[in-house]
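Case study 2.
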Amino acid sequence: MRLHLGFRRRRAATLFGTVLMLSLPALGLAACGGGAGAGSSQQSSTTTSSDKLVGAQPKGQSATNAPMRVSYGTGSIGAADPTTTLPNEQGQTIQPGLNPGQNIIIKAGRVFPQELQSSGGTPVVWYNLTKSPQRIIFDDFKFYPVDSGTIPPGGTFTWTPPNGGPVSYTLEPSGFVAKVFVNPTGGGPGLGGNSGGT
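Prediction:
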């Protein structure tokens, strides 16, 4: 009787082990196949984010030794200049929030103004008034491929837009987000034109 019972236990254990071994790959495939599990969301978000970047550098990257890549409009980097001074707009102080003009100040991990209303066809200039390298990366790199690369301390990044519209960008390495609204060529707030408000 003991021999017969022992045989049944071994057979049941072997059968359970076989079923378990056959089930594990199926469970692994289900987790990777797009279900609601933690594994699927991790894998899918990685694929999605790389698809959206289309050549852009990931956020939070260093601004040191980054190459300039500009395919939307034209861009150039001005050499480091320890005598770079605080720019203004036609004698007026640049405001931190919304400001018309063509100049943007990089200082203390932020940009001033946070939203610039510029004139189309006229260069927009970022002035790095910090003591460390900075970098401007346009957020929707697929449609607006602009990455300033390294802007040295005291240096500038000059970008000439090809046409009008709003463009969001990120200052690296701080991650501060700002916007440039380019009014169509022919006048705008930067040249004393009307932005359409009043």
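The chain has two helices and twelve strands.
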